[in-house]
Amino acid sequence: LGNTRMMNGQVAPMMQPQIQMVQQPTAQPQVVVMQAPQPQIVVPTVQTGRTPHPGERTDPKSQKGCTKLNNPGMIEIKYNADIKDLSGCDKCLLGCGTCCCLSFDKNRSYLYVRENSIESNAAMQVCWNPATCRCCHSSDFVNVMYFDKDPFEKGEGCIFCPGCCPYDPKLEVTDDGCLICCVKCCSRKRVVFMPYETYCCCCKNRVNGCDNCCGCCGPITGNPKVFSSWWPQPKDPEAFVKVCQPTQVEAMQRA
After folding, report:
1. In which band, very low, low, confident or very high, does the pLDDT at 77 lie, cut at 50, 70 and 90?
2. What integer best gives the mean pLDDT of the chain?
3. Which of 38, 74, 116, 173 has the lowest tally of Cβ within 10 angstroms?
4. From CA 227, how far away is CA 240, in angstroms rounded?
């Protein structure tokens, strides 16, 4: 009967099947974040010691002054300076003064700022050494300057007038050039020892306007008047002094 059927003599409507719609959750798109690889920072490690050999010093207090080391088994080098080569004039003077028997050996020379001192080696190529009867070999001229001894040691200065020239040396960068008509010429910098800032109680140990006609002609303003130097020289004087000054302070505190 179409949509009806007989049930106990009554006509009943046919039940329609109920269809339930189940909504499936939509899959969310997965976002994958790609992280760039982080650069690996390699931190240089410093050797802190080694197993001492029999008979070695192991107590830092067994040494005094700036010869004392942070670690009895090693000396730390704070700065290995790149060496400045001699100028053409200096090479000619060295050759003429030694009858062409000596020449500067830059590759064997060095200049170290150590934890307690400055060590330098001015190596020379010797054409003939009469003491050893050898020719064409290299000779080393090594010098070590500890921070608590000359030329760094402080003092009263003049023995006849104590206090008038207090000796308080420090490293400075001087320019060997000159001023000509207010223009700096022939500039060449180097590291020097400046023994004091003032002398004779009130005189400044630096070039000022009275020494170069108010910056017109003469030495460069600010250079020390009284100083001493050594050889070989670093190629970058400012960087050398920047490392050496705090190293000297640390060494004196430790001493």
Report:
1. very high
2. 78
3. 38
4. 17
Q: pTM surpassing 0.85?
A: no
Q: Which residues pair with 173 in a beta bridge?
A: 191
Q: Which residue from 236, 190, 191 is spatially nearest to 82, judged by alpha carbons? A: 236
- Which residue has tokens 């020719």? 135
Chain centroid to CA 41: how far?
21
Between the two ends of the chain, the Cα-to-Cα distance in Å is 119
Outline where 80-137 has alpha helix (H): 88-97
Q: What is the dihedral of CA 13, 17, 20, 21, to 10 degrees?
A: -110
How is residue 177 written in tokens?
Answer: 């050039």
pLDDT band for position 6 (cuts 50, 70, 90): very low
* Cα–Cα distance list, 160 to 152, 195, 200, 201, 203 (Å): 21, 18, 12, 13, 18
